[in-house]
Every structure is written in structure tokens, then in C-alpha cells.
Design a protein that fits this description.
The complex is a heterodimer of chains A (203) and B (549).
Chain A lengths: L7 E7 L5 H10 L13 E10 L2 E10 L10 H4 L4 E7 L3 H17 L4 E7 L1 H6 L8 H10 L3 E4 L8 H30 L3 H9 L1
Parallel strand pairs in A: 1-3, 1-4, 4-5, 5-6
Antiparallel strand pairs in A: 2-3
Chain B lengths: L56 H5 L5 H12 L7 H10 L3 H17 L7 H4 L16 H4 L3 E7 L4 E4 L8 H16 L6 E4 L2 E8 L2 E7 L5 H19 L1 H10 L6 H4 L3 H13 L1 H5 L2 E2 L5 H13 L5 E8 L2 E7 L7 H12 L8 E6 L10 E7 L7 E6 L5 H18 L2 H9 L13 E8 L4 E3 L10 H18 L8 E5 L4 E6 L3 E7 L5 H22 L5 E2 L1
Parallel strand pairs in B: 6-13, 8-17
Antiparallel strand pairs in B: 1-2, 1-5, 3-4, 4-5, 7-8, 7-11, 9-10, 10-11, 12-13, 12-16, 14-15, 15-16
The chains are: A alpha/beta (203), B alpha+beta (549).
Catalytic activity (chain A): GTP + H2O = GDP + phosphate + H(+)
GO molecular function, one term (chain A): metal ion binding
Main location (chain A): cytoplasm
């Protein structure tokens, strides 16, 4: 699309309050905001340029709202995504069940989407190990089963956040030769109005 | 489920009568007073209005059955046009009995009684900052909970709690059960409960199936105004869910717990209630513009207009809760209530500060059955200038996002950014600019454009309670002027701490606050002068040339 070229669509999914927006904030701006919790309304889009070897890749990151209200239309945010970062709170086992729901959703609707499991708020475990609500090995087994990568991150300290998005970008570059072909087909079939729109945007 | 911009509900009547015809106000008289027909008053748009045309407060508050809209033309014809000439007005004022002054004393007593003793905790301390962990709810058995000036409850017809302004909904489930019992008891008799007045409290019920909204207030607002606020809460809920979805849910499952779907939106509703207590926009049913030189505003509007896309319906630029510019699709009018809901959505969340938001939103007054998709972003970090692009197509994010880029580029090319920054530095003007010594504050609304203007609230209304007291006085005058059984056109109110004047005509509404030392004659002279000043400044204070794509 004119104006901003996005190479890979990346979507963040997960229960509300697990820290998806904080993860994006850390990744895009290198910041962490302590303040009161602010839930995302709808979804927020941020473009992030990554470097892989001598190539640059622009990730178009969709930070979705965790609220159930938006569940019905979450598909518009993950449709065509190359990567999904499915987040859960390391201290909250309920949020991991929710993550499994999103994984199923992706496996059913977006076969071409690579899944990255992301346990958030690891700094809380540094303070007190007993706070861990989701066992590392259980998740590791689950990740192997669904062929996903697993990261445990802290947006507060920045731990593993850059690694996560770097991996997303590298995987995109390494697998892109195969995916470009499938994308071209997909776009032509699904976006009925697109040629029309492009021509009127470019004049 | 995209909102259909072409399908209008019956109450919205054919477009011709939504806004005054273009030819109607080509003759703009120099003096604002003689024969002020609607559409020629200061602030009236020169090329049609931006908003759904609401002739009166009653239009805004009436149920959406079109009764008010259908009634008002007849009413208008019946009213003599010479009513608004200045002499007539002064005569009306002098004939006005002292009855109102007498009433003012009662009112003041009532206010003193209200002020005594109970120091409420500030809303911030009571505010739940999270729907998740760390949510601190008030204990509903404590006196502090009881002493809030206005409680608002929303429940489903099954008596299930949906929202409570203070305290957790669970703790209040039995209270809400009682409320539902009251409603059903009267409905069983083919009757409807509207309000209960007891012990200085007004309990107001608004029934919008499948929801029941209840306010328990000891403010001085009229029952009608409290009901109006409850309707705003109802529309707020619709804006998140749509009317269609809301009804569908409860048809499927009568005892559904709606809080699941509304999770995280409490903050938006809380903010709306706080805003209504401070911002006269809601009382006036109108929108305030950021004061801006007409040339700058025109440049901004044209830039917005040029950055269009097929799916765009409204492009709105706002700052604080003031409108900078609004460009709309031809023949589509925004309702002030819908715009207020958008303002509230943006002011209640800091999450729009990052990146670009793309969110489904229903504009219930426009079309309560479907979602629009709104692109929300701030133009620059650290600058309070928010752009809202409302699209019908949820797949159109990148096209709409590109509109934003094009808008910013045009703005840069026209070189108005600096002027815009300057204007943002002084988002309010001082009443001293009018040059009337006894004048403290005023609210002026142009009915045909749906816009109002008002200076900054200055000394002696410095503290929050004082500001709320002033708004309370305006609310009181407003409710007297719009009392459905005995509406008033002119009110002069003498109080111990200020004098106020209200003047409501077909074309405009004016509420003025003076120092208590002035006289009625002085006040009337000042109105004349004030109207001239507003006329002189109208191109800065209002949007006179609204644009369409």
C-alpha cells in the first residue's frame, strides 16, 4: 500500500491484562510505563523496522484488545498474519488456557502463520519464584507439539523482548521465499476491490 | 456488520429538514438582534450545518420515535418572529415577576444544605484503575459510599448488575434486584416508574429494553436532565456493542452477564459521568470549537477534505474536548450525541497516544445497528491534537491510515502547523476580551449549527466545587427554560453570589453570569454588547463553513 510498506504482519493475541501493549511499547520505543492499567480499545498498529543480516524488514505489529467484546472481530486483525505472538501471564494459569484458545483459533484459520508463545512479566518471578503459575516444561512441551517458539519476557526490564521480535523477523526472512508466492495468490483472491483502490491512491 | 450510511431511521426525517437549506441564511445582518431567524444568528453555518439538526433540547432528549421532530415545525410557525427584538426582550425582563428571585433563595438554601458536612472523596481516589488485579472497589456498606452525589446503576431486565459508578457490581446485586422489582411491579400494572423523590434524593429510572438505568442523585438537576444523562450512558453502551448485538444477546440468554462483554469499558463510562458534571457540552447538546483564526481553520478543513477515501464518512480533528474541524460525507450528518461519545472515548484513554488505533465503534444516533471503524491517532507526540477518521469498511485500515499521512503532508505544505500549535497553546479565551466589567462567564449556543462557545471559567470560580456550582446554576436555568409544562424564554436570576440571565429564542440560547452587584438593566445592556462581540468574533469561535468530501 502506498505510503508505508509493511513486509510482515505480526499480531499479538492473549487475554486482557497480560501485557501485550507493554510488550509493543518496549519493542517499538524501548520504554516501560508503570502507570495505571489502560486497556487497548480495538487494536493499535505500530510499524517497526528490523535488521536481519544485510536486509531490513518492516514488521507491521497489531496490538489487539484482549477484551471479549472484540473477540468476534479479532479475525480482521490476524487475517494474513505471518506471525502471531500469543501472550500469557507467567503468574496466571488462566491466561495460559486463554492462550491455547488463540493457538487453536490460529491453527484453524491461519495455517501460514508462525506462532510464538510469550510468557510475560518474568520480572515478577525474579522477585518471588512462588508466583509462577505456569510451569516452564509444560509450556515447552506444548510449544513443541504446536511447533511454536517459546519466550519468557519482561517488558519492565526488557528481558528477551528484542530477541523475540528479532526471531520473528529472522524467521520471516528465512521463510519468505516460500510465503511470497502464497501471499500473492491470497491477495488476489480475497481483496476484490484492491486494484481499484490502488489505482485511485496513486494518481 | 458494517454500518449502512445510506439507511436512515425514520426519525431522522428526509435530509432537507435535517439542516437549514443553504439559501436560508445568505443575508447575515450586521447587528445580531433584529429578526434573528434561525440560521442567521452568530455562529450559524454559512454553508449548511455539520450536525443532525436538532431544534431544541427536547429533540435531543425525546425518545427516538420522531414525535418531537414531527412536532417542532408546527410549534415554530406558531411563534411570532418579533419575539427576539431587543425592546421586546427588555420589556419581557422587566415584566418578569420577582417570583424567580424568591425561588432563588430556596435554591440557595438547598445548595447550602447540600454543601454542608459531606466532603466527598475525590473521584480519582475512588476510581478503579483496572478491571483486573489491583482494582480497588469501595465498600458499599460505608457512609462514604452513601454520600456520593450521584450514583448510576445499569442492570439487565433479569436484575443482573451491568454497571455501578461506585462500588462493585457484585456487592450491589441485591440492591439492583430491588430496583428491578420496583420497575416490574409497576409494569405489571401497565404502568411505568419514572422517578422517586424523597429526602433530598431523586431516583430516576430510564427503561431501554433490555437494560434498566437508574440514577440516585442529590444534585439540583431536574428529573428530565438526570434522565438525559442516563440516556447518554445507554448510548455509551450501544456505542461499544450496537443495539442489534445487545438485543441479540439477551434474546439468546435472558440472564446473560453483560459485564463480560463490557469488561474494560467501565473507565469510559466513569469518564463520561465525570465529564457531564464539568462540561456544558452535554447540557447544551452542542459542540464547542477550538478558537482558531478562520484562515487557519479553513486550511485545516481543506487539507482534511482532500485526504479522503471512498469509505470515509467523517474526518474529525479535535483537541481536548473541542472541535477543530469536521469534514463529512455529503448528505451525512453527525449527531452531537455521537460526537460527544467520540470525544469521551478519546479523553478517557491514553492508549491512543501510541501508534494508530483501529477500532469498531457504533454511532448510536446515526445508526445503532452496525459498527463503523475508526482510525484514531494523535498527530504528534506531546501535542493534544487527535485525528479521528470514521470509515465504513473494516478492511480499509491502510487506505485510511494513508489518508492521515496525506492530511499531515497537506498541512505541512500549507504551512499552517505553526499557527495551529499557537492556537493549541491558548485553547480557551478570557471573558475579559469581551470588555464588559460585570460579566463573569457565559454560554452561547447557535441552534442551527449545533455549536456553542464559552470562555474559560475564571475567578471566583477557581475551585472544582465552585466550577460545578456554576454549572449547576446553568443547569437550573436550563431546566427552567426547557421545562416541558412551562417553558420560559427569559429568566433573570438574582443570587447572593452572582446574577444570571437566560435567554432562549428560536435561533440561539444564551446563559450569562454577572457579578452580584450589577442591575437588571445593566445586565440587559451587557447582553446586547455581548451579542455584538460574539458576532464580531464568530468566525474564530465557530465553524462557519463546514466542508464535505
Amino acid at each position: 500500500m502506498s505510503g508505508r510498506r509493511v513486509d510482515a504482519k505480526v499480531v499479538l493475541l492473549g487475554q486482557e491484562g497480560v501485557g501485550k501493549s507493554s510488550l509493543v511499547e518496549r519493542c517499538a520505543h524501548g520504554r516501560f510505563r508503570a502507570g495505571p492499567y489502560q486497556n487497548t480499545i480495538g487494536a493499535a498498529f505500530v510499524a517497526k523496522v528490523m535488521t536481519v543480516g544485510d536486509q531490513t524488514v518492516t514488521l507491521g505489529i497489531w496490538d489487539t484488545a484482549g477484551s471479549e467484546r472484540y473477540e468476534a472481530m479479532s479475525r480482521i486483525y490476524y487475517r494474513g498474519a505471518r506471525a502471531a505472538v500469543v501472550c500469557y501471564d507467567l503468574t496466571d494459569s488462566g491466561s495460559f488456557q486463554r492462550a491455547k484458545f488463540w493457538v487453536n483459533e490460529l491453527q484453524n484459520c491461519e495455517e501460514g502463520c508462525r506462532i510464538y508463545l510469550c510468557g510475560t512479566k518474568s520480572d515478577l518471578l525474579e522477585e518471588d519464584r512462588r508466583k509462577r503459575g505456569v510451569d516452564f516444561h509444560d509450556v515447552q512441551d506444548y510449544a513443541d507439539e504446536i511447533k511454536a517458539d517459546l519466550f519468557e519476557t519482561s517488558s519492565k526490564t526488557g528481558q528477551s523482548v528484542d530477541e523475540l521480535f528479532q526471531k520473528v523477523a529472522e524467521d520471516y526472512v528465512n521463510f519468505s521465499a516460500f510465503q511470497v508466492m502464497t501471499e500473492d495468490k491470497g491477495v488476489n483472491l480475497s481483496q476484490r476491490n484492491s486494484p481499484y483502490f490502488y489505482s485511485c491512491c496513486h494518481h | 456488520m458494517a454500518a449502512d450510511v445510506h439507511k436512515k431511521k425514520s426519525w431522522e426525517v428526509p435530509n432537507g429538514s435535517l439542516a437549514p437549506g443553504d439559501g436560508q441564511h445568505t443575508e447575515r445582518s450586521e447587528s445580531p438582534t433584529p429578526g434573528l431567524a434561525q440560521g442567521t444568528e452568530p455562529g450559524a453555518g454559512q454553508e449548511g450545518a455539520m450536525f443532525v439538526h436538532t431544534r431544541s433540547y427536547e429533540d435531543l432528549t425525546s425518545p427516538e420515535d420522531g414525535a418531537a421532530a414531527a412536532r417542532s415545525p408546527e410549534e415554530r410557525r406558531g411563534e411570532p418572529a418579533e419575539q427576539s427584538s431587543m425592546e421586546q426582550i427588555s420589556k419581557d425582563f422587566s415584566e418578569l415577576s420577582t417570583q424567580l428571585t424568591g425561588m432563588a433563595l430556596d435554591l440557595d438554601e438547598e445548595m447550602r444544605a447540600g454543601k454542608e458536612g459531606k466532603l466527598e472523596p475525590s473521584p480519582q481516589t475512588a476510581r478503579r484503575d483496572s478491571v483486573l488485579s489491583g482494582k480497588e472497589e469501595e465498600d458499599v456498606t460505608m457512609d462514604a459510599w452513601r454520600s456520593h452525589r450521584k450514583h448510576v446503576f445499569v442492570l439487565s431486565e433479569a436484575g443482573k448488575p451491568v454497571y455501578s459508578r461506585y462500588g462493585s457490581e457484585e456487592a450491589l446485586s441485591s440492591t439492583m434486584g430491588v430496583m428491578m422489582a420496583l420497575v416490574s411491579f409497576l409494569e405489571a400494572e401497565k404502568n411505568a416508574i419514572r422517578s422517586i423523590h424523597a429526602d433530598g434524593y431523586k431516583v430516576v429510572f430510564v427503561r431501554r429494553s433490555p437494560l434498566v438505568l437508574v440514577a440516585v442523585a442529590r444534585t439540583r438537576q431536574s428529573e428530565q436532565e438526570i434522565a438525559h444523562e442516563l440516556l447518554y450512558i445507554y448510548y455509551q453502551i450501544l456505542s461499544l456493542l450496537t443495539w442489534t448485538q445487545l438485543n441479540h444477546i439477551f434474546q439468546q440468554k435472558q440472564n446473560y452477564d453483560l459485564r463480560r462483554l463490557l469488561a474494560g469499558s467501565e473507565r469510559i463510562t466513569d469518564n463520561l459521568l465525570d465529564l457531564m458534571a464539568h462540561d456544558p457540552s452535554f447540557l447544551m447538546g452542542a459542540v464547542r470549537c477550538l478558537p482558531l483564526a478562520a484562515s487557519v481553520r479553513d486550511a485545516v478543513s481543506s487539507s482534511l477534505q482532500q485526504a479522503k477515501a471512498k469509505s470515509l464518512v467523517f474526518s474529525i480533528l479535535l483537541s481536548g474536548n473541542q472541535l477543530v474541524s469536521l469534514v463529512r460525507k455529503k448528505d451525512q450528518f453527525l449527531h452531537p450525541i455521537d460526537l460527544h461519545l467520540l470525544f469521551n472515548l478519546i479523553s478517557s484513554s491514553s492508549s491512543f497516544r501510541e501508534g494508530e488505533a483501529w477500532t469498531p465503534i457504533c454511532l448510536p444516533k446515526f445508526n445503532s445497528s452496525g459498527f463503523f471503524h475508526a482510525h484514531i491517532s494523535y498527530l504528534e507526540q506531546e501535542m493534544d491534537l487527535c485525528l479521528l477518521l470514521v470509515s465504513t469498511d473494516r478492511e480499509d485500515f491502510f487506505t485510511v491510515s494513508d489518508c492521515k499521512r496525506r492530511f499531515q503532508e497537506r498541512l505541512r505544505r500549507r504551512g499552517v502547523q505553526h499557527a495551529l500549535h499557537e492556537a493549541l497553546r491558548t485553547p480557551f479565551y478570557s471573558v475579559a476580551q469581551v470588555g464588559i466589567p460585570d460579566l463573569r462567564h457565559f454560554i452561547y449556543k447557535s441552534k442551527s449549527s449545533g455549536l456553542f462557545t464559552s470562555p474559560e471559567i475564571e475567578a471566583p470560580y477557581v475551585q472544582e466545587e465552585e466550577k460545578e456550582r456554576l454549572l449547576g446554576l446553568y443547569q437550573y436555568l436550563h431546566s427552567r427554560a426547557h421545562n416541558s409544562s412551562r417553558p420560559l424564554k427569559n429568566i433573570y436570576f438574582t443570587g447572593p453570589r452572582e446574577n444570571l440571565l437566560a435567554w432562549v429564542t428560536n435561533a440561539f440560547e444564551l446563559y450569562v453570569c454577572y457579578s452580584p452587584l450589577g442591575t437588571k438593566a445593566g445586565a440587559i445592556n451587557a447582553v446586547n454588547k455581548l451579542m455584538k462581540w460574539i458576532r464580531k468574533e464568530e468566525d474564530r469561535l465557530f465553524i462557519l463553513t463546514p466542508q464535505t468530501y
